[in-house]
Q: What sequence folds into this?
């Protein structure tokens, strides 16, 4: 096991699959202990449990909480299990939002309540966790605060309105935290992944068409993988990335250029 990040923790919100899980594996391979907060049905837990055992086999500690990351009691319980001054990385990877159109029948169309739920889950919860970790002195002296955004932050995509609003809010929070948290030694950045076929992406109506289009316009003629994104998380965690702050880092092979 590489011990580059020995004795520090990465806390991942929404890490039982996709980008979050790939990041857990990458950081564990370099010695980081891993804490994953996720929300999965019983039928999906067998696969996740196997993944956790695989991470533990790398010789690191792993904590997992199959609980609602949006609840204050979850935040309190998780934080109580992690030593003070040990969290090097907080990684926000929560994908919980409405995928409704703006118009249609009353039951089909996006409502204000749908927007509030989506923004709370995919943006405001990042601030909730960050503030709680600061209050309880859980961050290391040189910590990294990272969240995943998407190309929907600036582009209109069918059925993606609520998530687009949430991602725009997420990036606004990123910029503000990048300025206000520096006295605490915390840098804050977003990673904008290219189209990646995760469970959350596959829930988007027309996802197969979106994936095919993305592959055609990507200069490398392939989709982004969770491992591509995990590599970027690892790079931002390194000491050499200390001066990267307040940035949305595109990890898409140049896909967004076309």
A:
């Amino acid at each position: 096991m590489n011990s580059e990040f020995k004795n520090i923790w990465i806390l991942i919100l929404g890490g039982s699959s996709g980008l979050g899980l790939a990041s857990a594996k990458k950081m564990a391979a370099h010695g980081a202990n891993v804490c994953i907060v996720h929300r999965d049905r019983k039928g999906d837990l067998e696969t996740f449990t196997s993944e956790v055992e695989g991470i533990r086999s790398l010789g690191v500690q792993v904590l997992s909480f199959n609980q609602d990351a949006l609840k204050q009691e979850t935040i309190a319980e998780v934080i109580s299990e992690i030593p003070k001054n040990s969290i090097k990385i907080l990684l926000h990877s929560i994908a919980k939002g409405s995928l409704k159109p703006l118009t249609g029948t009353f039951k089909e169309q996006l409502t204000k309540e749908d927007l509030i739920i989506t923004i709370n889950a995919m943006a405001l919860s990042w601030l909730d966790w960050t503030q709680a970790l600061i209050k309880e002195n859980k961050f290391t002296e040189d910590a990294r605060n990272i969240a995943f955004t998407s190309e929907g932050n600036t582009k209109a995509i069918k059925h993606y309105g609520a998530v687009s609003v949430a991602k725009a809010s997420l990036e606004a929070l990123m910029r503000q935290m990048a300025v206000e948290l520096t006295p605490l030694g915390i840098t804050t950045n977003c990673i904008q992944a290219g189209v990646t076929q995760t469970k959350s992406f596959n829930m988007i109506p027309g996802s197969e068409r979106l994936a095919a289009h993305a592959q055609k316009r990507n200069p490398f003629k392939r989709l982004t993988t969770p491992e591509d994104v995990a590599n970027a998380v690892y790079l931002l965690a390194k000491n050499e990335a200390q001066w990267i702050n307040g940035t949305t880092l595109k990890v898409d092979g140049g896909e967004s250029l076309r």
In short: The chain has a mean pLDDT of 94. The CA atoms of residues 113 and 185 lie 36 Å apart.
